[in-house]
From TrEMBL:
This is Xylose isomerase-like TIM barrel domain-containing protein. Residues 59-253 form the Xylose isomerase-like TIM barrel domain. InterPro entries: IolE/XylAMocC-like, Xyl_isomerase-like_sf, Xyl_isomerase-like_TIM-brl. It comes from the Bacteria. Coiled coil: none annotated.
Amino acid sequence: MRKLMYAMRGHDFQDYTTPESLAQKMAMKKINAVQLALAYSFSDIATDDKKLSPGLGYTFQQAFQKEHVLISILSCYINMIHPDKQIREQLLQRFESYIRYASFFGAKIVATETGNVLPVIQYTEKNFTDEAFETMISSVLRLVQYAEKQNICVGIEPGINHPLHSIEKIVRLLDKIHSPSLGIILDPTNLITSDNYNQQYEMVKQCLELFSERIVAFHIKDFIIKGDKIVPVNLGQGLMDYKALLDLIEAYKPYCLTVLEETKEAHISSIYSDL
């Protein structure tokens, strides 16, 4: 097995109702880290940030620690550039709550994408304007400055449908915000299209050469192409040359946190031994 720290998303598992039962299912699959999205995995427990507390965090941390599973990332995906400034403020406050309580869960990274200039997340070239980028910078800077006080890392995930949609824009973001509390969660599949998917290796290598020290985690998400759309599938069932990418990541970032995203529970055993 490569020298990488593999993780799974909690909501890629099924049929669990408590932190204990999810931790047990992950341990049975020999998964030792989780990216935990409370809104997806435990919506009855944490439907909003007002339900977060040290006790909730400790309960989750203890349940997963008992099974030797690390809560490596808390997911709090928000539209940080929502066009309604009142809603945007509520979302930013929600993310700040996750930053404030992350350490109680045992997590040091809180993850999000950069959002959409429209109220609903969908593709629009309006996301690619300088105005959208500067609005994003303002939101990211606010979150990072708050995270610095809490000794937490804000993990930003680029995506082709968002203001942070290219390698050039990632570099611009990192040039503008010099902080150890800002990290990139790199998901190669989020940056490719049906036209350039064969360049996935070269793209990841370029990112590693340009800003490897700012990458805090990877998402490895296999895909197929339907029409002009990229559609996620279980690892090993699509067009991703994941073995080559994992070799590359290991060479630049040994033991880096690598989340096997969109690979469902039933498929884990067949692929995990091949990593």
